[in-house]
Amino acid sequence: MARPRTFDEQDVIDRAMELFWTQGYETTSVTDLTSALGVHPGTLYRTFGDKHALFLRALAHYRARLADDFAPTLLEGGPVLPRIRAVLIGWIDLAVQQDQPRGCLIANTAGELLPGDEEVTLSVRGILSVVEDGFLQGLRAAARQGEISPALDLPAAAAMLTMLLEGLQVIVKADPDPRRLVSAVDTALLSLASVRD
After folding, report:
1. Is residue 72 part of a domain?
2. For 118-149, how does the pLDDT look when each residue is reduced to its tens digit (9 = 90+)?
3. Among 58, 71, 76, 133, which is most exposed with the fewest C-beta within 10 angstroms?
4. Domain extent for 188
């Protein structure tokens, strides 16, 4: 008779995501995972498959935890541009608080594993698409509310904000003063608000 599981699968995936996020995929060994997660190697393989399969589950968890709520956060009501600014500045503030800023799991993964891993590529593309669509929905709401011009190329602006977000999270990992990037965020948002019909 199989013994019942004595761990919370979602908790294990969450902690695996955090470990991959901090250490990277390649440098995180199965030994690191079993030690940090408190799961026997046999249990890890039976439950999640190999390290790669667990990493894909971690990326899916990242999407569910951080990306899928992005559009609803921007559309909670009231002015949208301040919400977009808060999201971008929030990543800068987080980097300031960390001794060794770890940036974004998706940006880190793209730099480490792409091209070359088709399953990870599809996952990363999916997450970036959700983020870009969240920006687009927010910008459409901002245009309806008169914060930005409806003449603005909103899909291009959403792609620009996605690039800004991901690029910002790469730079904060090496910048000794991430707070200086606040003015760059403000400049980008001012350029959106300054477009006229």
Report:
1. yes
2. 999 999 999 999 999 999 999 999 999 999 99
3. 76
4. 68-197
